[in-house]
Amino acid sequence: MATFDWSQCPAVESIPGKRSGAWVFRDTRTPVSVVFDNLEVGASIAEIMEWFHLSHEQVTAVIEFAARSLDAPPAPPPAQLADAHPLR
Q1: Model confidence pLDDT, tens digit, residues 25-77
Q2: Which residues span the domain enclosing 72?
Q3: Model confidence at 83, in pLDDT bands (50, 70, 90)?
Q4: In total, how many domains does the chain have?
Q5: CATH code (residue 64)
Q6: What are the C-alpha distances in Å from 70 to residues 2, 25, 54, 73, 77?
Q7: Which long-range contacts (CB under 8 A, 24 or more apart) does 47-54 make?
Q8: 54 vs 46: CA distance, rounded Å
Q9: CB 49 within 8 A of CB 55
């Protein structure tokens, strides 16, 4: 599964002590994962908005951020970085 740098998404936040530091929608306690978990089982964006009291902008912001993150070139593994720049 892909790992995203959610700190770059303005629609979400992670605060230690709030939902154990999980990424949540800004100013809520709703985890970002509810969007993807519910889409995976067939829920619509409208249903997710209703069930979790989220705006269309909030939901689409995380979906679009995830889509852009998947399009980004992957970072090379640390071993490849070390091989590319050997210390001599």
Answers
A1: 999 999 999 999 999 999 999 999 999 999 999 999 999 999 988 876 666 66
A2: 6-84
A3: low
A4: 1
A5: 1.10.10.10
A6: 8, 20, 23, 8, 17
A7: 53/28, 54/25, 54/28, 54/30
A8: 9
A9: yes
